[in-house]
Amino acid sequence: MPTPQTEPDDDLLPDTRRALLHRVAVAQSRSRTPSLVAAVVRDGRAVWTGARSCVDGHAPDGDTQYRIGSITKTFVAVLVMRLRDAGRLGLDDAVEKHIGGTPADGVTVRQLLTHTAGLAAETPGPWWERTPGALRPETADLLGERPRLHPAGERHHYSNPGFALLGAVVEALHDGAPWDEVLTSEVLEPLGMTRTTRRPRAPHAGGWAVHPYAELMMAEAVQDTGLMSPAGELWATADDLCRWAAFLAAGDERVLAPATLEEMRRPAAPGGDQGLGVQLLKGPGDRVLVGHGGSMPGFVAGLWCDVDEGLGAVVLANSTTGAPTTSIAADLLGLVAEREPRIPEPWRPVSDPDPELLALTGHWYWGTAPYVLRVRTGRDLELTALSGTARGARFRARPDGGWTGLDGYYDGETLRAVRTDDGAVSHLDLGSFVLTRTPYDPAAPVPGGVDPSGWTVPLG
């Protein structure tokens, strides 16, 4: 009988909870924001919520709506990836294939998702966040006379109108249904996110501007931004965003496959800090955090996940400027990861090993550089370099029997096991590199051939 194993308590330790509340309290005080609510998710479940407010005896809770600004873009990106997975669009489709009448013809869906289309950051004046969407009634109104500031695909340049175009693509491929209605039926309802809406619903926080040099506040107006709404219109609660953080970290087959979420979380633009509709941030211990920041008049927000630690953090505040929600969220993640690091699952052997896959494991050589090939989850492989200058990588199994590189130099490259006529493995082909069981195996098709003299002792 297996030995019983002690599992960690799901709740955070008292000292950790106090440290989190202290960070939130300091942030609300120093940034002079009217209110601030934060939450932490661990392994898919909210384990802490804290809040501070300038109103004595009253603070927001996890069911108080705030405007989340550009975190909205992560929701739109998921709708686009659902369409891609359903075969209804390709990431390399030109935008005019799905919508017409824009000055953005020629840019691709992928470039819009990664902010590499070279489009302007904002609409032509007046400032879209503070004016009615009726001022921009057509998609052609979202970009001005100079819509492209940079050549498409060459650099990362954040574009709010670019995500408005993606919202228009979603609507066009759903027979004109508003993008937020599609979001509700296809994403929010399956995930139980009943308090995420395009327009505010009580209870919700009011948006404020705080005077920069005096202890004064002024109410911020809320506009319906119309066609620009996919760039930042949504309102949500900390409770709902905890569910969203858990989804972005692990996926949910009812909405999007985990493999697609992993694809979205990988660097997809120059600079390495942008995925497919999500932002990437260097977090504590050089771990990469995935999520997005957001701001709209009267509100700032941040949602970030540490996928390796199984953690997520949400921070919402109701001031136009001041609260550094992204750095606060990163600090909350770091506090939990440092004080209560994730306890890994017990190692267990597989019950049905694949003999052919097992036969590929062990030592391989590229020229004289030694590697070890290991089987990981399912049929995935990991190639580890045994010398300091060689390059390794992880590989995802493909239906055709090959593997696709997931990181580093071999990201996207194909690994194949090449067999002889009798079925024996001759060598591994990694993007044209030949890996053999012995250094420069004369029986393998080493490019350039192998000296017939073999390994010799050099003379004088």
UniProtKB/TrEMBL annotation:
Q: Do you know which Pfam families this protein is assigned to?
A: Beta-lactamase (PF00144), DUF7586 (PF24491)
Q: Which InterPro entries match?
A: AmpC-like (IPR050491), Beta-lactam-related (IPR001466), Beta-lactam/transpept-like (IPR012338), DUF7586 (IPR056008)
Q: Which residues form the DUF7586 domain?
A: 354-437
Annotated segments matching region Disordered: 441-460
Q: Which residues cross the membrane?
A: none
The domain of life for this entry's organism is Bacteria
Residue ranges of every copy of the Beta-lactamase-related domain listed in the record: 30-336
Q: Which residues form a coiled coil?
A: none
Q: What is this protein called?
A: CubicO group peptidase, beta-lactamase class C family
Organism field:
Actinacidiphila glaucinigra
